[in-house]
Design a protein that fits this description.
Layout (H helix, E strand, L loop, with lengths): L4 E7 H16 L21 H13 L4 E6 L3 H12 L5 E5 L11 H18 L4 E5 L6 H11 L3 E4 L7 E3 L4 E3 L11 H10 L6 E4 L6 H10 L3 E2 L3 H6 L3 H16 L25 H8 L2 H8 L1
Helix pairs in contact: 3-4, 4-5, 6-7, 7-9
Length: 299
């Protein structure tokens, strides 16, 4: 019942590391006879060749669409490898555009403008659909989504779950635990899915914290075109997909809905009667009326 598969990301760090390793190895032979350097005859095979070959094999092995994922940093890398990925025969590419700022003086507008320029160039060279997976670390995520939508991005994945380092107090060192999402993490993408629905041309793919059929239904009601699931498959196995689909079908039947299109966006901002449903007024209301929350915790 899966509609498409997103293959694991190709990271720029992989590209740089493999290129550096090859350079270091080849330079060991700089002082030797030229004919001996024939052990490096195919320099074009340096870099993430295995990843691209794996994409080709995966595309041949499955009948549903295969979406590649690219997570780069430099503009040239984005463009070069987006094209190489397209050449593998995949059906679409997802650009993971997370940026980790290293300079305190870096203006947000510089980062965003650079991302926009990268997308413009990628859209020029690719013919397959392009989606962008964003983090929520923008001053105004709605603004960057709108700007990218105007370029012609075909879809947005909301949001990217980032690796979050921790500290081992006994070892006094950083550790990198494998952090899976929780169901509560779905509330942020739920909110922005509901706000962006019908305000952009691109599709919205809700991601993070989606574990059950009920979670999928919530995202559809908010306006999602599709949903990405990862954590629930790690925790519950691939058979969880069938259970989720069954939950969705039962809910739709009980409500009398005959099609997903009948429910998509019904609870988006566009159709809500309460204009303040997504404003801070709701936050203030909860604080001023916290008694029900306290009672709920006591139960």
């Amino acid at each position: 019942g899966v509609a498409a598969v997103v293959y694991k990301s190709l990271f720029e760090e992989q590209i740089q590391l493999e290129s550096l390793q090859l350079k270091e190895i080849s330079e060991e032979y700089d002082d030797r006879h030229a004919e001996m350097t024939d052990i490096f005859p195919t320099m074009q095979h340096s870099g993430p060749k295995e990843h691209l070959l794996a994409l080709q094999k995966a595309k041949k092995a499955i009948k549903i669409p295969l979406i590649a994922s690219l997570n780069a940093v430099n503009k040239n890398t984005w463009i070069e490898y987006a094209k190489k990925i397209e050449d593998t025969g995949v059906d679409a590419v997802e650009l993971n555009m997370y940026y980790s700022p290293k300079e305190i003086e870096m203006e947000p507008s510089i980062i965003e403008n650079e991302q926009i320029e990268i997308l413009k160039e990628i859209k020029k060279v690719l013919s397959i659909p392009v989606s962008v997976k964003l983090s929520y670390f923008y001053t105004n995520p709605l603004s960057i989504i709108y700007k990218m939508d105007k370029i012609g991005v075909n879809g947005f994945v909301l949001f990217n779950r980032l690796f979050e380092p921790d500290i081992d107090t006994l070892q006094e060192d950083y550790i990198n635990p494998f952090n899976l999402s929780n169901r509560e993490d779905s509330r942020l993408p739920l909110r922005f899915t509901a706000i962006t629905y019908d305000n952009i041309k691109a599709d919205i793919c809700a991601s993070t914290g989606i574990y059950t059929g009920e979670d999928v239904i919530k995202m559809l009601l908010a306006g999602a075109s599709c949903i990405q699931c990862v954590g629930t498959l790690y925790k519950n196995g691939i058979e969880q997909i069938g259970k989720m689909l069954e939950q969705i079908e039962k809910w739709m039947s009980s409500k009398g809905y005959g099609s997903i299109e009948n429910i998509r966006g019904r609870l988006s901002k566009k159709f809500l009667k309460d204009p303040f449903a997504f404003s801070r007024n709701q936050y203030v209301d909860i604080l001023l009326n916290k008694e029900p929350i306290i009672k709920e915790r006591e139960m």
